[in-house]
Amino acid sequence: EAKGQGKGRRVAYTAEMDQRTAEQSRLAADLRAALDTDQLRLLYQPIVSMPGGELYGVEALVRWTHPERGPISPGAFIPIAERTGQIVPLGAWILEQACRQAATWLDELGDAAPRTVTVNVSARQLREAGFAGEVDAVLRRTGLPPHVLTVEVTETAVFDGGAALAELRAIAALGVSIALDDFGTGHSSLGLLRSCPADILKVDKSFIDDITEGGQHAVVVAALIGICDGLRLRAVAEGVETAEQAAELHRLGYRFAQGFHFARPMPADAIAAYRPPVVSRMAAI
Ligand code: C2E
Ligand code: MG
Ligand code: MG
Ligand code: MG
Q1: Which atom of ligand 1 is nearest to the CA of 125?
Q2: Do residues 183 and 156 touch, judged by C-beta distance below 8 A?
Q3: Where are the alpha helices (DSSP H) in 174-232?
Q4: pTM of structure
Q5: Pocket test for ligand 1, best of 61, 82, 138, 258 (most atoms within 8 A of CB)
Q6: Angstrom distances, CA of residue 231 to CA of 136, 228, 237
Q7: Nearest C-alpha to atom 19 of ligand 1 is from which residue?
Q8: Could you tell me how far CA 12 lies from the centroid of its own chain?
Q9: Residue 272 · residue 66 · CB < 8 Å
């Protein structure tokens, strides 16, 4: 009977949803413990300048090793932390940790230290009243000069309300750099881009992927470097995986890039020994 069937399907659907919800609340509970018991750490992925093969900066990326399940990717647990609000204490820990590391690099490596250390900040953190004050406090506690820190936010996080933009302006006023992450995947207009205190624009990997195959995104990537030059933004190409892509980006005028072609995220103590490959124009031919 149709009615019974429909009901049965609804029951199955609900059970599946319950299971997912249970799984997510289990992860949320485990995450609470993770912060207190040393299960989280930061890796750092080099951002390099082209064509010289010099380290320009690093992006801090959080890693969670669950005691029973092993590594859980940030793509899986950051969205949960954002929903539960746990991203606020978690993000505070990440910011402090990264600033402490940046100050250590300055001490130990001097001129060879990464010139900027980038920290991802969620929309939820940006909406917390007084977040800029917290950034200021962390800089003072760690003794890190503000210009060494870059706060990285997605365009969606900045443009979804007035409060986030005001907080971002307050952070920029401290002397901290602002990067717009995953640029091109959200829905901000170029007009909004001008109203945002951004210094760096990170062109999303999805645009980089097909540029050497005559894909349609090559046009977007070429246009974005012109926009960045015009608005005095520093363009960073994200997710560069091949020498051919690097060469093509260099040919288009890009001076900064990040991706597995250059380096994977690595522990802090591996950064000093890292030497980026030089980008050759020949690879494009
Ligand atoms: P994102 O900020 O856009 O970071 C770049 C992601 O792309 C990283 O993944 C990085 O490992 C990966 N990636 C870099 N180069 C390449 C490449 O050439 N090929 C490919 N396939 N991937 C590449 P990860 O570390 O898994 O992080 C995923 C996302 O999770 C980040 O995207 C960011 O949105 C979020 N996330 C990571 N760490 C943090 C954090 O400390 N705080 C916050 N709020 N979010 C974070
Ligand atoms: Mg990022
Ligand atoms: Mg990104
Ligand atoms: Mg991304």
Answers
A1: 44
A2: no
A3: 190-195, 205-208, 217-230
A4: 0.93
A5: 61
A6: 27, 5, 17
A7: 239
A8: 38
A9: no
